[in-house]
Amino acid sequence: MLVLLYEFMREMAENIECEIETIVNFAKEFSGANETYPTYHIDSPQRVKEYVKKANEIARYVPGGKILDWGCGYGQMFFLLHKRGINVIGCELSNHYRCGNLVDSLGLDVVFLSDSESLPFEDETFDAVLSCGVLEHVEDINVSLKEISRILKTGGFFFLYNFPNRFSWTEFVSRHMLNKGHEKLFGMKRTIEKLRGYGLITIKSCYDSFLPLKLGFMNRRLRAIVDLPLYHVVDHFLARIPLTKYFCQNITLICRKR
pTM for the complete prediction? Predict the structure, then answer.
């Protein structure tokens, strides 16, 4: 029995390492001056591991059924969910889609959107909808949430990852010192209340990414530090301390449609 368990765990670890290597190699091939959407968020094993954790979490909540990867981008989450045997459908704005991405590598298609709000699916189509760095970029968040609630089945899940925190210290520095950062920021409490208004009841909430993860994009020496496993261990620790967690970069919410 122990031998079988060991073999299973070893096989799982090998599969994950293979997934990480595939995504990192893809990002390095796509990176370049002509890319309008940077790949620094998936061009190192440590960063890709963050997406692996998200995919594993989704698989625990929704082991079967159909999931919409809303705004699938380069397809890293689509790729990871598909590898976990999940029936995932991707959608993306037609003018943002980059041919030859990870979705294309699987030989699968995505649904192209004419705008960021309307979703061309029937009512209660999906068992889950994933927003990973997408909801904060739509023109009208209320319209998008109404659409997400509409296409979700009763009891279905809404996974909200990489949602920019209003009180993030890194966002403050980006805005006031670097003239960068997200255009829209959100608070945990108000976001939970807004989601509830669309029948999406939060069952898990947390903060993540206290330490800046984009430094590597600015400087090679800083990149070497950010890519250290210890850097991410410290980051995860600080994201769970009662005081520092409120100043993390992102909000994570998992909701269920009532």
Answer: 0.91
